[in-house]
Amino acid sequence: METKWINESMFYHIYPLGFFGCDMENKGGDNESHKILKLIDYIPHMKYIGINALYIGPIFQSATHGYDTTDYRLIDTRLGTNEDFKKVAQELKKNDIKIVLDGVFNHVGRKFFAFEEVRKHREGSQYCSWFSGLRFDWNNSYNDGFHYDSWEGHELLVKLNMQNPDVRNHLLDAVEMWIDEWDIDGIRLDAADCIDLQFFRELKQRTTAKKSDFWLMGEIINGEYTRWLQPDLLDAVTNYSLFNGIYNSLNSKNLCDIGYNVNREFNNEWGLYKGKLLYNFVDNHDVNRVASLINDPKDLFNVYSILYTLPGVPSIYYGSEWGIKGHKNDGGDIELRPAIDVDNIPIENQELVDHIKKLAEIRKNSVPLKYGDYVQISNECLYWAFARNFNGETTVVCVNTDDNPHHFSFNYNGRQYDIDVNGRDTEIV
What we know:
Elements: E1 11-14, H1 16-19, H2 39-48, E2 53-56, E3 60-62, E4 69-75, H3 82-94, E5 98-103, E6 107-109, H4 113-121, E7 150-151, E8 154-159, H5 165-182, E9 186-189, H6 197-210, E10 215-218, E11 236-237, H7 240-252, H8 255-266, E12 279-281, H9 290-293, H10 300-309, E13 313-317, H11 350-364, H12 367-371, E14 373-379, E15 383-390, E16 393-400, E17 406-412, E18 415-421, E19 425-428
Helix pairs in contact: 5-6, 7-8, 10-11
């Protein structure tokens, strides 16, 4: 069997400006903090819970929250220097942890060099064609005396003109630098549904020429994913449909909902994404923490049991292994992105941490959980059983949302299964 690093992966997701307690405004200057070097001290914790892939981002120079990029070749000075991140990347690789960075390519910040040139020279700028919807007979809320397209009306985020080959090459050259300098293994593509597909084709060609197994994962929130999941485009997308289904089904004690959803996506005969490996998560930097979404903390154990056993690549958002809470307040994300003191790692909720560690060990040792198809065995409101199969090997998963123990009894592929599952628990056989 050919081993693929992405199938073998269990991700940890860090939003670094929050994780390292950076100021939310980049005041500029050369006051590099070297904060990102503390990530080296955090590696033992990630390894303890079985992590072997890190998605970290955004890390490039920006004015505020990181998604208003001003320089694609420079680590944000609030985090450190390029040389700092090189040291971090080397340590991650020594510990067999893959690296995936945030690629924010749909838009840039207002301090991006080409946009500043447009503000300075207006119609006379050589960079006018770099931006989408640029009009000098209109104005914007910053009173620049011209209009431009932005991401969802947020004028801080200036939309690039991806039809311009100079723009595409500027971005693609930066990605090649990331691979050469830091040996990264993949990119998470921000706002992928807003980006021209031809850019993804070029990105795929350029990155696979550098690394044959380079991984491209797009942030897609709504709709079906098949448009982007093509051999010449993206390898995976964010599985928001699964994210919603897991906590909703556990809160309502109606596993029929999540069962229907997973069957629709991954049924071994007609699933929409059969054979694809989507990026699965239960929270991230843009949505409420799962501990704030779930009605009863006891159900967090089943949350992660489901996450680690379904088709796809599981990802833990930093801090959620301790069950920390966080809500979006008035549309703000600060509470979702707290600082972590690497020298005093939280020890509360160690039972949940150890549960995730156990799940990582089970997944590591189960070929079907990493490579197998999906077959639903039974699906009732309170109980759910499914199988993952690969090359004659089978792993069976039984989920019980009832407070009381439940006995699962069924015949699957000629074998009789009799499995006792405690209340609000999962058995993996």
